[in-house]
Design brief:
This protein has a single domain, classed as Trna Endonuclease, Chain: A, domain 1. It has two helices and five strands, in the order αβββαββ. The chain has helices at about 1-20, 75-90, and strands at about 20-30, 40-45, 50-60, 95-105, 110-120. Strands 1-2-3-4-5 form a five-stranded mixed sheet, with helices on both faces. β3 (about 50-60), α2 (about 75-90) and β4 form a beta-alpha-beta unit. It is globular, with a radius of gyration of 15 Å.
Amino acid sequence: MQKLGFKGEVLAGNYLVANGYKIIEKNYYNRKGYRLGEIDLIVEDPRGPIVFVEVKTRISYGQAVVPEESVSHSKLKKIFKISQYFLIERNLISAEWRVDFVGVIFNLKTRKVSIRHIKYLHI
């Protein structure tokens, strides 16, 4: 399953770069002390804000799959905590930022990949 998640994160990163985003960090976590959580991608939106991206990858056999349903309230809290840590660590606490979601679906029936980018929460 880790290989699938890695492939999804690579595709999500490529998608974001193709849409003008600049990758700042991949798989970022608190390196000092205990782990607050992990963020799959931190990117800069071409319009300015820093974006903390949660990537979820799923396999479909032709049925409808909704990867964003797996982002729990607890996961969002962790994303907010580690986002704050990143902003403080980089002295960007006053920067504009948001949390986005990128869902990657590998459809084994059609042999196609679909990517859904949701701009989640703007701060």
